[in-house]
Amino acid sequence: MTIGVFARTTGLTPGALRFYADSGVLTPAEVDEFSGYRYYAAAQIDHAVTIRQLRDIGMPLDAVADVLSGNPAAIDRHVARLGDDARRAGRTAAALHRTFAIENEERFMITVNGPVFANAVEQVITATTHDPEAPVLSGVFLEIDSATMTLTATDRYRLSTRTMPVQSSRQWTGVLDGVDLRAALPFVRRTHRVHIEMRSSAVDFMADGGDAQPCRVLAEQFPDYRAMLDGLPDATARVVVSRTALLRGLEEQPNEYVKVVVAENNIELGDLELPAAVTGSQCVLAFGVTTLYPAVASGLGPDVMLDIIGEAMPVLVRSADDGDLLTSAMPVEPSLVGG
After folding, report:
1. pLDDT tens, residue by residue, 48-67
2. Is residue 126 helix, strand or coil?
């Protein structure tokens, strides 16, 4: 199986698989001598899952190799070291908090409509993912300038970005912890006016009556998504199609991947034919249903617009009549779709 299929099967990323191959921990079953493509065998799945589980608990590669060579006692030694490290980290954190009191952090506040902000977060947070090697991908990147708030999330296969108007006295950027943000959404949704207080380590969502929900700010730097979007070539085709019809068609797909054929006046979604307004070149793409469906479902209004660049480039999904929500969905190799 290809590296992409093996990655999805085992819960590892293609980048992690390449790293483990180069480190000698998990080598591909076969490497094409001409293309360099890496292929894995089904018999390697359990081995890869074991590596992922060991890495999920922070085990270094040399210790992983020790376990895989038949020494499970290395797991106990590693867990003991984690306990020691946690206790040391706790003592260090306490000392730092005493030195740099949170009350002394520089902070400022903006006010938003709670239900509107909650909807905007829910439209982008579906593009987050849990990746121990890239914890920033579990968060939502918040950017604020004098007139605009932008929320962005990505899991490498999808990217969602949503803008909404605000009034702010200054600029601020930070990655909001996805777990904390999800926990705060019910409070934000039922609060008409939400005051968002920003500081370097956390954000507080506050109501007029004094109730508040905290949200941590992650330290890692968010990927430069603007450079990625700015670097994309012009679209070769544009499709405007009913969002409801497209979602229903995706829901009816029996397989993990679906072929999308862009024709003259319609798109073919597997065996279904959906009317569409098509401009530009006809083409054939393939998507993972779990990638394309959330990108379409998070849209606004009755129609969605698909800007297609090529079968190996992100497809930009936006609301046809409201361009302030943009989601990119990465196609997969058409060979993954049978027929």
Report:
1. 889 899 888 888 888 888 88
2. coil
Topology of the domain comprising 106-226: DNA Polymerase III; Chain A, domain 2 (3.10.150)
Half-sphere exposure of 45 (CA within 13 A, CB side): 11
The CATH architecture to which 3-56 belongs is Orthogonal Bundle (1.10)
The pLDDT, as a whole number, for residue 306 is 93
Judge whether residue 339 has pLDDT over 70: no
pLDDT tops 60 at residue 102: no
Tell whether the model's pLDDT for residue 175 goes beyond 80: yes
How many angstroms separate the CA atoms of 118 and 164, rounded?
A: 12
**CATH code at 232-336:** 3.10.150.10
Rounded to whole angstroms, the Cα distance separating 93 from 98 reads: 9
- What residues does each domain of the chain span? 3-56, 106-226, 232-336
247 phi and psi, to 5 degrees?
-65, -45
CA 259 → CA 256, 271, 312, distances in Å? 10, 9, 14
- Section 269-291 average pLDDT: 92
Whether 94 shows a pLDDT value over 80: the answer reads no
Short-list 259, 263, 261, 305, CA closest to 280 = 263
Total length of the chain: 339
**Residue 99: its pLDDT value, please?**
60
Confidence at 201, pLDDT banded by 50, 70, 90: confident
Sign of CA dihedral 271, 258, 6, 123: negative
pLDDT of residue 138: 95
Dist. CA 51–CA 12, nearest whole Å: 9
| CA 34 to each of CA 5, 19, 64: distance values in angstroms, whole numbers, following the listed order | 20, 20, 31
Q: Are 144 and 313 in contact (CB under 8 A)?
A: no
Alpha-carbon span 298 to 319, nearest angstrom: 9
What number of other Cβ atoms are within 10 A of residue 242's Cβ? 16
